[in-house]
Amino acid sequence: MRPFSRIGAAAIAIGVFVIDRWSKMMILSHVGPDSVKTVIPGFFNLVRSENPGVAFGMFSDTSSTWHTPMLVLFSIVAILVLAAMLWKIDKLDRMSAIALSLIFGGAVGNFYDRASVGAVTDFLDFYLGTHHWYIFNLADSAICVGAGLLLLSMYFTRSHVEAKV
Prior knowledge:
Elements: H1 6-30, E1 36-40, E2 44-51, H2 67-87, H3 94-117, E3 120-128, E4 131-132, H4 138-164
Antiparallel strand pairs: 1-2, 2-3, 3-4
Helix pairs in contact: 1-3, 2-3, 3-4
């Protein structure tokens, strides 16, 4: 099977970034800060939430003046590491390349928010009864799907290596 190309990886990452930016702009222009738009009653709402922390609201309560700059710096380091890994895409299997492209696009999308306004816009609210999952966005989804694909890739690569031994 032909290795995944840098152009393919860039297309996926740019696609994730563009869709993430578009979805956040739609939420910012159509959903008020304190409003809830029910999409599927008892299961899914659109809300507008600004998360100054990281995934699942971690570090959002920190009042330090270094909070946002440190998160921006951490994001830059993570994006540079992902970019370096994607630059050597010819050494990756197809699933890992796609996974890293999804993670890269999502990381850049959330970085854009954090660097420009100091918080990430989240809006997808899934719940059952009174039990709500953390509110998230499409960049978060791409990062999670990418992480899942990386785990699958590692599992299948390991299984393939063990079968040869």
